[in-house]
Specification:
The structure holds three protein chains of three kinds.
Chain A lengths: L1 H15 L2 H23 L1 H5 L4 H7 L2 H6 L3 H6 L4 H6 L2 H5 L5 H32 L6 H26 L5 H22 L4 H10 L1 H9 L3 E3 H28 L1
Helix pairs in contact in A: 1-9, 2-9, 4-10, 4-13, 9-10, 9-14, 10-11, 10-13, 10-14, 11-12
Chain B lengths: L2 H27 L7 E3 L10 H8 L5 E6 L14 H19 L4 E6 L5 H11 L5 E7 L2 E6 H4 E4 L9 E5 L1 H13 L5 E5 L14 H9 L3 E5 L10 E5 L7 H12 L4 E4 L6 H11 L4 E3 L3 E3 L2 E3 L2 E3 L7 E4 L12 H6 L3 E4 L4 E3 L6 E8 L5 E3 L18 E8 L11 E4 L14 H11 L4 H4 L2 E2 L9 H31 L1
Parallel strand pairs in B: 2-3, 8-9, 8-10, 10-11, 11-22
Antiparallel strand pairs in B: 2-4, 4-5, 6-7, 7-23, 12-18, 13-20, 14-15, 16-17, 19-21, 21-22
Helix pairs in contact in B: 2-6
Chain C lengths: L1 E10 L2 E11 L4 E5 L6 H9 L6 E6 L2 E2 L4 H6 L1 E4 L11 H11 L4 H14 L15 H13 L5 E5 L7 H16 L3 E5 L3 H7 L2 E6 L2 E6 L1 H8 L5 E6 L3 H11 L2 E6 L6 E5 L5 H10 L3 E7 L4 H10 L4
Parallel strand pairs in C: 3-8, 3-9, 6-7, 7-8
Antiparallel strand pairs in C: 1-2, 1-4, 4-5, 9-10, 11-13, 11-14, 12-13
Helix pairs in contact in C: 3-4
The chains are: A mainly alpha, B alpha/beta, C alpha/beta.
């Protein structure tokens, strides 16, 4: 546990002291800011602010365009960068389990990603200060869904990051994987039989839109990203173990 | 096989096993019976009510719900109206909850502009959909069709450019009714007492609107011309009474009340005094009786306050004149919805011991007076003093026995309001009263207010928000990045 | 303390290690020699737990590196050949983090990091980011990292590379001190004088196999027979005559020293020294020198890596 905490603190500190992470954060804020300002000018949203959470955290551009791309860009710092710089060898020969290292890295990235969403939360607060009536239940659930989805995309990015020391490959692979997780089920939603059922059960934007952004805490909508995140963490651990075994 | 190949194969196998376990776990957790959901919205009305959920669970396996989400009324989409986006957002959210709460008995199909044209065409043809039909609930060969207007109340756009707005929704209740109607065919029965008014139940100028309202509320309506034949009904509605009871009927009315069965009794200002006396004799022990006279209120116009205008027979009550604590009136009170009572007799509430709890659910304003029989019509004179008068009262046993609805009673001082087009102005109150009498909890039946205040920031506010979103936050992040970079270089 | 038995490591078709066995006892410094690609780094990486052996077993402090990897890793401090740390972290931060990672409580970790930094002359660099350190100081940080948990065994892969002579001297002293405290040290190096000065025993790897192991004296004695025979004769055409006679008596003339005219001969399987000496006397060559020199480490190394693996 001590090793885990040490690694977690080190990763978080590494991210907080990384110009790269803050540049990424800047671009995230910028794109989100444009999107937020654009939505807020929409007459429909002005007429009914309850539409803002589903547009922002549900089935909108943010989820389909930005969200799959940014977590892998952050996750490449976790393993691919270590491989490139050569710090992975001292780390994995230290007396600490691979699983603890991975979990610490992953959780640190998740915590740092809270800052990403914190900026968006600040915009809601400002809106509220200017007299907008917000349903905080819906907004909060929307954030929860977006954060869970981000954590899944981070886990997928971490897995992609474990395959190569090439940063472009790591980020590109992670983003491609995340886009696939969105697009493949969306194309199969209307498929008959089990394929359609499976696609609907794996269709993340559906849960973001119909559960979280609609103000629901839904056990399955929470379980889906959590179980998939755990799967990607397991696959990353397996990748590291295989790397040792097959080296 | 080489050791390396064996290890690689083993790794792939373990990875695939992990994927299998994850899929299995998700398949189990996706089962409707294992889904736990908590509604976090501030209205608490994101999902279906217990009543609707129970109704949906009585549906047979293979029931289908097909929803058409097409913005078909152009007026409701003008000027950035949020009517359709918001309504469809609600439909999606609530029907997903309905699907889950139905325990796998309900297959929900949502069709909108992004759906396959072929699939939409096929569904329209199969269901014989007409424009405006929004929701089809099918059980075997029978189906229930609900139009958009039956699910949502819309305030029309105004000439000065105000867009259409959603006022309220009754999606949950309509869905529950449809499910109940299709599931069993055995709906709760309401008897409408129409003695001496043959055919009134089928006359749009008389009681047809009330019968429709009760049907919409999930009742089977029975035309009762004689109280002796209503004992097997679940609810009795007396929408005015034009002739006094024969002794046998009086006994039947007493027996109804003694059996603790619910009653909505409306007697207006011009009801026969013998009728009022008969009922008052039955009701006095319950702490609420009808008074005499016509409640009048001064009418305020641009020319000032007019007293004595015949129109004072219409009492327009604002939210403040409803009991904000009682199940019948709380939502009307908090939403500030106006209701109009026509030709209203006062309802007096008094001591009834500890057996009953009585609430004056609607009252007049403080400037009201009673135009008493024998006095000059609608003019405040020396015999008539100003003060608050009861318009409607609700009574129920202090200690509920058995069914929650046992012994519930609503006294309404206006019968005319329940007739013809006037019912539209008292729709909310009547529906709420009927639901309370039927023993449903408030959350289950109330119209869900969907109106949020529009947010129209002025230019300065808009600019401030834009600046924060597009300049300040990203700028701060870039500045932090630059600061860290410089610090490192040093 | 450090023990490896019949280690085999294959990378695809390439056999990097082929049955290497070794043992390093407490207080011993084992110098690991071998040309590039001999398998030195691979052996050390296996002993550090970074790579698994294809066959064979390895243990540190009695803990098997495959079946009890965590305990084995706890017993060893490892300095990789290309040591790297996160560039943004200061030396102090990095060492404290590593101490914590190796199990120390946060406060203890900082104290331990301070102590090791002081011991290795890193105190002045305590607040300097790792990315701004010179190669030598980076190596010291790596060694400090290896020493943080005070492990009983140390694995150092090319610890002297990139160090200036002063730093090397300090480094040597440090390692000697550690060995005196009972630590088992295994280090690899290309710098033969460093190995000669520091190692209490040597292990020479060649093409993945153990070419020789022992103290310098033992190896010298063992290889003396293989050392070249030096023959210096005076007289007319002495060099040509010595060369011809040597060839006839089973020797391979290796080279002729330009300054002295001495001929260095490598003995072949059929070589007969006594017969050569008698032939030289019979030819009336004025033989001034006829002897085999004890090889120095460089010669030893060359001898071993030129010979077929033992």
């Amino acid at each position: 546990m001590r090793a885990f905490i040490a690694q977690f603190k080190r990763e978080l500190r590494g991210l907080l002291l990384s110009p790269y992470a803050f540049v990424l954060l800047g671009f995230w804020f910028l794109l989100n800011g444009f999107f937020f300002a654009y939505l807020l000018r929409s007459p429909a949203v002005q007429n009914d602010l309850t539409l803002l959470p589903p547009y922002l955290f549900g089935n909108g551009l943010l989820v389909w365009l930005l969200l799959p791309a940014f977590p892998p860009l952050l996750a490449l710092k976790l393993l691919a960068e270590e491989q490139r710089v050569g710090t992975l060898e001292p780390l994995l020969t230290a007396p600490v389990r691979d699983a603890a290292v991975l979990l610490a890295k992953y959780l640190a990235a998740c915590v740092f990603f809270l800052v990403f969403w914190g900026g968006v939360a600040a915009l809601f607060l400002v809106l509220n200060l200017h007299g907008a009536q917000l349903d905080w239940g819906r907004v909060g659930c929307g954030f929860l869904g977006a954060m869970l989805c981000s954590s899944l995309f981070l886990a997928a990015g971490l897995w992609a990051s474990s395959w190569s020391g090439n940063l472009v490959l790591a980020a590109g692979g992670g983003a491609a994987l995340n886009y696939m997780m969105l697009f493949v089920p969306s194309l199969l939603l209307d498929a008959p039989g089990r394929v359609g059922t499976f696609a609907r059960a794996a269709y993340l934007p559906g849960f973001l839109d119909q559960a979280f952004a609609a103000g629901w805490i839904d056990s399955y909508a929470i379980a889906l990203p959590l179980v998939l995140s755990a799967l990607f963490l397991f696959l990353t651990w397996l990748r590291l173990a295989a790397r040792r075994m097959l080296a | 096989m080489s050791r390396r190949l064996r290890l690689a194969a083993l790794t792939v196998a373990v990875g695939l096993a992990g994927v299998g376990v994850a899929m299995l776990l998700l398949a189990v957790l996706a089962r409707p019976a294992l889904r736990l959901r908590a509604d976090m919205t501030h209205t608490g009305g994101a999902g279906v009510s217990e009543r609707t959920a129970a109704a949906l669970r009585t549906l047979p396996e293979g029931s289908r719900l097909t929803v058409f989400m097409f913005p078909e009324n152009p007026a409701w989409a003008w000027n950035g109206s949020a009517v359709y986006p918001r309504a469809f957002d609600r439909l999606i959210s609530l029907l997903e909850d309905a699907r889950l709460r139905a325990g796998g008995r309900l297959e929900v199909t949502l069709l909108d502009r992004t759906s396959s044209l072929l699939e939409t065409e096929e569904a329209q043809r199969r269901l014989g959909r007409r424009p405006g039909d929004a929701l089809f609930l099918e059980v075997g060969d029978t189906r229930k069709v609900l139009a958009f207007e039956e699910l949502f109340q819309v305030i029309e756009p105004t000439r000065d450019g105000q867009p259409a707005r959603l006022r309220a929704e009754r999606l949950d209740h309509a869905l529950g009714n449809a499910a109940l109607a299709l599931a069993s065919g055995a709906l709760p029965r309401v008897a409408i007492y129409t003695a001496a008014r043959a055919g009134a139940l089928y006359d749009p100028q008389q009681l047809l609107p009330l019968a429709r309202l009760l049907t919409d509320e999930g009742f089977e309506v029975v035309d009762a011309t004689d109280l002796r034949g209503v004992q097997d009904a679940d609810l009795l509605v007396v929408p005015g009474q034009h002739q006094a009871f024969a002794p046998a009927e009086l006994d039947a009315a007493r027996a109804w009340l003694d059996a603790g069965k619910p009653l909505l009794l409306a007697l207006g200002a011009f009801a026969d005094e013998r009728v009022v006396e008969d009922w008052n004799a039955l009701l006095s022990e319950r702490g609420a009786v009808f008074g005499s006279g016509l409640i009048c209120e001064p009418v305020r116009t641009s020319g000032g306050v007019i007293e004595g205008d015949p129109i004072c027979g219409h009492l327009e009550t604002s939210g403040a004149e409803f009991d904000d604590q009682h199940a019948i009136s709380s939502r009307i009170s908090t939403s500030g919805r106006a209701q109009i009572f026509t030709a209203t007799r006062p309802v007096e509430t008094g001591a009834a011991g500890n057996a009953f709890t009585i609430a004056r659910v609607a009252r007049s304003e403080v400037e009201a007076w009673l135009d008493l029989p024998g006095g000059k019509d609608f003019i405040l004179d020396g015999a008539e003093r100003r003060g608050i008068r009861g318009i409607a009262a609700a009574s129920e046993p202090w200690m509920a026995q058995g069914d929650a609805a046992n012994g519930r009673l609503v006294l309404l001082g206006s019968a005319a309001s329940l007739e013809g087009g006037r019912l539209a102005a008292l729709h909310d109150f009547t529906a709420a009263a009927v639901r309370w009498l039927a023993g449903r909890e408030m959350r289950d039946f109330e119209l869900v207010a969907t109106r949020e205040l529009p947010f129209r920031p002025d230019r300065a506010t808009q600019a401030r928000i834009d600046n924060l979103a597009v300049l300040v936050l990203p700028g701060a992040a870039f500045l932090a990045a630059f600061g860290i970079f410089l610090r490192r270089r040093r | 303390m450090i023990r490896a038995e019949h280690l085999v490591k294959r990378f695809g078709d390439l056999v990097a290690l082929d049955g290497v066995s070794l043992e390093v006892r407490p207080g011993e410094i084992l110098g690991f020699l071998g040309p590039n690609g001999a398998g030195k780094s691979t052996t050390i990486r296996i002993l550090s737990g970074w790579l698994p052996p294809t066959r064979g077993s390895a243990s540190v402090n009695g803990h098997d590196l495959v079946t009890d990897s965590l305990a084995a890793r706890r017993s060893v401090g490892y300095l990789p050949e290309q040591f790297a740390a996160p560039h943004e972290l200061r030396v102090g931060e990095y060492l404290a983090y590593r101490a914590e990672l190796k199990g120390a409580r946060p406060r203890m970790a900082r104290e331990r990091a301070r102590a090791v930094a002081e011991e290795l002359g890193l105190s002045e660099r305590w607040r300097q980011p790792f990315g701004t350190l010179s190669k030598g100081f980076r190596q010291r940080v790596g060694l400090a990292d290896a020493l943080l948990a005070d492990p009983p065994a140390l694995l150092l892969d090319e610890p002297f590379s990139g160090l200036d002579p002063v730093q090397r001297q300090e480094f040597r002293e440090t390692l000697r001190g550690l060995a005196a405290r009972g630590k088992a040290i295994l280090f690899s190096s290309h710098v033969l004088p460093e190995v000669r000065d520091l190692a209490t025993r040597l292990l020479v790897l060649h093409r993945g196999r153990c070419a020789a192991v022992g103290t310098l004296d033992e190896l010298q004695r063992k290889l003396q027979r293989s050392a070249p025979l030096r023959v210096l004769a005076r007289g007319e055409h002495a060099t040509e005559r010595v060369t011809a006679l040597a060839t006839a008596h089973g020797f391979d003339p290796e080279r002729i020293e330009a300054a002295t005219g001495a001929v260095l001969l490598r003995a072949l399987a059929t070589a007969d020294r006594a017969a050569l000496f008698r032939a030289l006397a019979a030819e009336e060559c004025a033989v001034e020198e006829f002897h085999t020199e004890a090889p120095d480490l460089e010669q030893l190394f060359l001898l071993l890596v030129r010979e077929p693996a033992a």
